[in-house]
Specification:
CATH architecture of the largest domain: 4-Layer Sandwich
Distance between the termini: 56 Å
Radius of gyration: 25 Å
Strand content: 15-25%
Strand order of the largest sheet: 1-2-7-8-9-10-11
Structural class: alpha/beta
Number of strands: 21
CATH superfamily of the largest domain: Ribonuclease Z/Hydroxyacylglutathione hydrolase-like
Number of helices: 12
CATH topology of the largest domain: Metallo-beta-lactamase, Chain A
Length: about 400
């Protein structure tokens, strides 16, 4: 895509492709590469730029701008998201389009100054329903924080019914045909992107969807992957479904107990804790051997769980790999409202339980109880203590307030 591409009524695509990238932000696989999308709107009063591209691709980006206008014609630059793959070319653009005003969310101001390394930028903060009227066009701004950085926002081109969604509705999927009705099947990439980028912020996604539904949308101009024009509602509905709470449990809360075991001791603890949780009303307890779960199933189970308990022995002074796999995939979750706890049997030093407990706290789980640790084979009395541990954890998930442990 070496040329600017017209989208609709003097709106042009000026983004770039990164066809050969195979890993994005360390954790994401990009089998089809990706794009860094940016847009240019021409009006009879001047030009508006929507976002920029990764710095290493700025030469192509500027060539596309220069094919459409002079830098003196650029009056406004709208930055929906300041991650470097979208703001990399901004310092150069600002130095060339010297009279342009940059619109950002209030949260973006300190970040932008660090990125641009320029003190003389003309910045203006915008928020939901603030509007720019320019050249016969109306740009309505929408605050959509945490999707997926705190400063992110969206905007809406009223006359053309076009949503500039930022990273929302994006996908790491490169196809030179650009539009969703022309490219191949990218549903897998769309869902994969949601799971790794948006899934941890489900409540923020739902807040954004409530803003988007207030106006008709004919085209979604996102920041990664195909531009969506054939059936935008299809993709909006997907986000709504994936982000909504499942009510099939009729108000009951789920507590999921995960464990690995070497000599059955941690397993016995897990089952005693399970019995304690199950003794409480309004709760459903489930128990899982981590060695039999893959990441996809872990995520599904964690997503629907209000309470999460993890049990592990200590092996060579550390936590076994299946448990680290569970803990590492938790960064893909929305943790708000989730309660966590840990337990385990040990032979010598028993570091694993404290490691897991610390990780849950770092992930912003509420961790109200000291971890339950038992040396070697649990006695009947110790298994009853595990039962009581499960009872108390269940009570906390049901709303009992206790003083948080500082361990």
């Amino acid at each position: 895509m070496k040329q600017a591409i017209k989208i609709k009524n003097n709106l042009y695509y000026i983004g770039v492709s990164d066809a050969n990238i195979r890993t994005f932000d360390i954790i994401m696989k990009t089998a089809n590469g990706t794009t860094y999308n940016a847009y240019l709107l021409k009006t009879h009063e001047g030009v508006i730029i929507f976002d920029t591209v990764k710095e290493e691709f700025e030469e192509e980006f500027f060539a596309k701008i220069e094919s459409l206008c002079s830098y003196e014609e650029i009056k406004y630059i709208i930055m929906h998201h300041l991650e470097p793959d979208h703001s990399g070319a901004l310092p150069t653009l600002a130095s060339r389009a010297k009279s342009a005003k940059i619109f950002i969310s209030p949260m973006a101001r300190p970040m932008l100054k660090s990125i641009a390394k320029q003190e003389d930028l003309e910045l203006e903060n915008v928020w939901t329903n603030k509007e720019l009227h320019f050249g016969g066009k109306t740009i309505r701004f929408l605050s959509t924080p945490n999707l997926h950085w705190p400063e992110t926002m969206s905007s809406y081109l009223v006359e053309d019914k076009i949503l500039f969604s930022g990273d929302v509705f994006g996908s790491h999927y490169y196809d030179p045909r650009l539009f969703d009705d022309l490219v191949g099947d990218f549903d897998y990439a769309f869902k994969y992107y949601y799971d790794h980028i948006m899934r941890p912020f489900k409540s923020d996604v739902l807040n954004a969807l409530r803003l988007y539904e207030k106006a008709p949308i004919d085209i979604i101009c996102n920041l990664h992957g195909p531009i969506i024009r054939e059936n935008p509602q299809k993709y909006i509905d997907k986000y709504a479904k994936w982000s909504s709470r499942d009510d099939r449990l009729h108000g009951k809360k789920i507590i999921s107990i995960f464990y690995v075991t070497s000599y059955k001791n941690t397993k016995d603890m897990a089952h005693a804790i399970y019995d304690g949780v199950e003794s409480q009303t309004n709760l459903i307890a489930n128990i899982y051997d981590l060695t039999a779960l893959d990441e996809g199933n872990m995520l599904t189970i964690l997503e629907e769980s209000t309470g999460v308990l993890i049990g592990s022995p200590t092996i060579n002074g550390d936590v076994p790999k299946p448990v680290w796999d569970l803990l590492s995939c938790m960064m893909l979750l929305e943790k708000k409202g989730k309660v966590g706890g840990c337990f385990g049997s040990y032979g010598w030093s028993g570091e694993a339980v404290d490691m897991m407990n610390g990780r849950l706290k770092h992930l912003k789980f509420r961790v109200p109880l000291a971890p339950k640790k038992i040396k070697l084979i649990p006695t009947k009395e110790e298994l009853y203590e595990c039962f009581a541990f499960g009872v108390e954890f269940g009570e906390i998930v049901n709303g009992k307030m206790i003083e948080m442990t500082m361990e």
